[in-house]
């Protein structure tokens, strides 16, 4: 087994040195699903959630979550995000909320964790907004769809992988 990148020679955790890496445009797109009990789907569809619109509040929660990624994920670099877009859309066929988060930065390290954290935070925000109606919501299938930039370049998820 080779050397670990996140531990020093004494076996202690260390932040990976990215000081010699080149700044490039980095993007990442992630998605996730929040499956809803019928009562929540109906209430959200009618715009009748007492707390307000959970879809828009979840989008805000996703943006805030993406910005806080290095505070939540150990040894994740603090980067300056250029843009974060979160979308939460009701899917009537699946009785679910589809969540996507797109993050970008001109940086020395990728923004995959920020996109994944944005989706996760949006899902949890929606859950918090609707848990008073029914706690049976299920968060599933959070995954990276694509990324660009950096040493490894472009990556796109295989269709259906992980489903």
TrEMBL record:
Q: Which InterPro entries match?
A: MoaC, MoaC_bact/euk, MoaC_sf, MoCo_biosynth_MoaA/MoaC, Mopterin_CF_biosynth-C_dom
Gene3D superfamilies the record matches: Molybdopterin cofactor biosynthesis C (MoaC) domain
- The protein's enzyme class: lyase
Locate the residues binding substrate. Answer: 75-77, 113-114
Q: Which GO terms of the molecular function aspect are on file?
A: cyclic pyranopterin monophosphate synthase activity; GTP 3',8'-cyclase activity
Q: Does the keyword Lyase apply?
A: yes
Keywords assigned by UniProt? Lyase, Molybdenum cofactor biosynthesis
Note the superkingdom of the native organism. Answer: Bacteria
What pathway is this protein said to act in by its record? Cofactor biosynthesis; molybdopterin biosynthesis
How does this polypeptide assemble, per the annotation? Homohexamer; trimer of dimers.
Official protein name in the record: Cyclic pyranopterin monophosphate synthase
Q: Which organism is it from?
A: Synergistes jonesii
């Amino acid at each position: 087994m080779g050397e670990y990148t996140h531990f020093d020679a004494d076996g202690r955790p260390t932040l990976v040195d990215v000081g010699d890496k080149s700044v490039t445009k980095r993007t990442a797109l992630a998605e996730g699903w929040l499956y809803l009990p019928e009562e929540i789907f109906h209430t959200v569809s009618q715009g009748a959630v007492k707390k307000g619109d959970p879809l828009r509040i979840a989008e805000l929660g996703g943006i805030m979550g993406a910005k806080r990624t290095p505070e939540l994920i150990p040894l994740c670099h603090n980067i300056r995000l250029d843009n974060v877009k979160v979308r939460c859309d009701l899917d009537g066929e699946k009785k679910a909320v589809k969540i996507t988060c797109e993050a970008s930065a001109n940086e020395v390290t990728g923004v995959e964790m920020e996109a994944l954290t944005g989706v996760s935070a949006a899902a949890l925000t929606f859950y918090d907004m609707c848990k008073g109606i029914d706690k049976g919501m299920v968060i599933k299938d959070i995954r990276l769809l694509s990324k660009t930039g950096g040493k490894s370049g472009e990556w796109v998820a295989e269709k259906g992988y992980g489903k």
